[in-house]
């Protein structure tokens, strides 16, 4: 998963899917431990599995044009005015409105959760307690619900219960602690912080609370008559819960709990268990494999420039086998695995190009089950990357880089007089030692504007932290889009801007009369 939005989308789809399966197949079953394990696994899997991708060896349909790949590392933007340096500022730092709203929701939900936990411990600290089987028991005559939280047990309206009834209540609440139910509640509430916008999280919490009560009830009636226990449940019918993250002895599930007590011996059908166990891995595999094609393509075309010798070898092979299609793979164990998979495939009709390997060699695979390995090519230390694992960054931070550009970039008078405005794209290379070279105008607008854009960048002579790709320091290309915009005009969207590009530098000037 490469973005917050994409991760949250997949995560919440998983949460919704697993809840639908639970609601249809398990909600009315009395195998409480199995149901609880399913819900916990569903929550954890939904949050964890989007980070994993599994691949199935299949040829990728892509025809990379190695010489025409456009660099995708574009610098963020700022607005520059020729009137005063005080007006200079950063327009966008790449944080979207969605991210701001989402993070604000997470922060508020987290504060609320921490407040509830603090309120519980603060409440316990002000009460007198006695010890019962390593539990701290607090009794009160106040009209508060009975509940447990870790090793604390609170009994509200204790004066209404006989010693025998208190013993049953304590047995019930101690089961919550022994089974780790409080941890479940904290887990689902923490998940609710991350997915605060998803109402399905309330269903998970409700379902887990139900299962906790069912488990505790089942344990309690092992040494108590079912009818007497049901009478006790009716006696201590639900009162409003003051601490929503605790486990309550009595709640709105009283009637359902009584009903469940009478069906404890019913077993869940074996077929349903098998079905439920099969659903989870199938769905998780689908989630994990969803980006296979896209990421395989990205792996195959990461390098912008293929060495001339490799290109020549490919052309020679194409001449030798004009009706065949080739894929260029990394040499090594991974290539050998792919060779086995490719050898079982039919003719395909497309060509993929892989990056250089550690030893600089390539493998050309022909889809009619023949392949040839070209001789080892020396590593090209001058190779320039357009896509890397870690992007190069200015040594003293991007904000300072923008600020320095803002102080040096001016709107040329000649261009303002002519009313010229638009975009200039400046490309440069960040070397392995952090220096910048090979400045050139990638897209020209006007000679004066081109010159000013080049001057402002070259004058900075900024020191960069070099890019890192496959754990090695590499060169990379950077593109700076600079927009020259006259005051009062409306900038039009640039349709040529690539999907993953960031924003541009905008120079604003008043039109001279």
Q: Compute the gyration radius: what is it?
A: 33 Å
Strand residues, percent: 15-25%
Question: Quick one: overall form?
Answer: elongated
Separation of the first and last Cα atoms: 52 Å
Mean pLDDT equals: 72
**Helicity range:** 40-55%
Count the domains: 3
* Low-pLDDT segments: 55-72, 77-94, 293-305, 342-360, 365-379, 490-503
Task: List the total number of helices.
Answer: 15
Report the biggest beta sheet as strand number plus sense, adding barrel if it closes.
Answer: 8 strands, mixed
User: What oligomeric state best describes the polypeptide chains here?
Assistant: single chain
Strand count = 18
Category by helix and strand content: alpha+beta
Looking at this protein, list some descriptive labels:
513 residues; alpha+beta; Fusion Protein Consisting Of Minor Coat Protein, Glycine Rich Linker, Tola, And A His Tag, Chain: A, Domain 2; eight-stranded mixed sheet; five-stranded mixed sheet; 18 strands; elongated
């Amino acid at each position: 998963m490469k973005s917050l939005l994409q991760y949250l989308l997949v995560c919440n789809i998983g949460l919704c899917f697993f809840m639908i399966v639970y609601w249809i197949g398990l909600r009315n079953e009395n195998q409480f431990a199995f149901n609880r394990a399913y819900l916990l696994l569903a929550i954890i899997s939904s949050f964890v599995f989007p980070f994993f991708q599994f691949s199935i060896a299949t040829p990728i349909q892509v025809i990379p044009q190695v010489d025409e790949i456009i660099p995708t590392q574009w610098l963020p933007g700022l607005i520059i005015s020729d009137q005063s340096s005080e007006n200079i500022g950063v327009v966008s730092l790449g944080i979207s409105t969605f991210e701001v709203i989402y993070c604000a929701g997470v922060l508020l939900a987290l504060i609320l959760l921490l407040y509830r936990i603090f309120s519980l411990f603060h409440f316990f600290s002000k009460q007198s307690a006695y010890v019962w089987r390593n539990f701290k028991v607090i009794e009160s005559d106040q009209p508060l619900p009975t509940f447990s939280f870790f090793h604390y047990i609170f009994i509200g309206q204790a004066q209404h219960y006989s010693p025998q009834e208190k013993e049953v209540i304590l047995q019930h609440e101690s089961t919550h602690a022994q089974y780790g139910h409080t941890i479940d509640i904290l887990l689902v509430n923490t998940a609710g912080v991350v997915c605060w916008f998803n109402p399905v999280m309330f269903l998970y919490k409700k379902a887990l609370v139900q299962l906790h009560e069912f488990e505790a009830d089942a344990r309690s009636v092992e040494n108590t008559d079912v009818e007497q226990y049901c009478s006790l449940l009716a006696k201590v019918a639900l009162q409003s819960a003051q601490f929503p993250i605790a486990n309550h002895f009595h709640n709105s599930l009283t009637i359902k709990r009584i009903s469940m007590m009478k069906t404890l011996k019913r077993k869940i059908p074996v077929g349903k268990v098998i079905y439920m166990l099969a659903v989870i891995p199938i769905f998780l595999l689908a989630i994990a494999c969803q980006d296979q094609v896209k990421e395989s393509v990205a792996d195959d075309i990461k390098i912008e420039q293929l060495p001339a010798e490799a290109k020549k070898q490919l052309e020679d092979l194409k001449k030798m086998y004009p009706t065949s299609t080739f894929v260029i793979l990394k040499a090594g164990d991974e290539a050998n695995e792919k060779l086995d998979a490719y050898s079982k495939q039919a003719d395909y009709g497309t060509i993929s190009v892989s990056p250089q390997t550690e030893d600089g060699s390539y493998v050309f695979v022909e889809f009619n089950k023949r392949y040839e390995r070209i001789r080892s090519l020396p590593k090209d230390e001058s190779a320039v990357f357009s896509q890397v694992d870690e992007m190069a960054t200015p040594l003293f931070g991007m904000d300072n880089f923008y600020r320095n550009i803002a102080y040096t970039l001016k709107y040329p008078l000649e261009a303002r007089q002519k009313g010229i405005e638009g975009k200039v794209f400046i490309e440069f290379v960040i070397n392995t030692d952090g220096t910048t070279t090979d400045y050139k105008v990638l897209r020209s607008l006007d000679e004066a504007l081109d010159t000013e854009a080049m001057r402002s960048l070259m004058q900075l002579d900024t020191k960069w932290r070099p890019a890192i790709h496959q754990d090695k320091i590499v060169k990379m290309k950077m593109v700076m889009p600079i927009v020259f915009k006259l005051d009062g005009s409306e900038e039009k969207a640039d349709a040529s801007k690539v999907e993953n590009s960031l924003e541009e530098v905008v120079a604003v000037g008043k039109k001279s009369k």
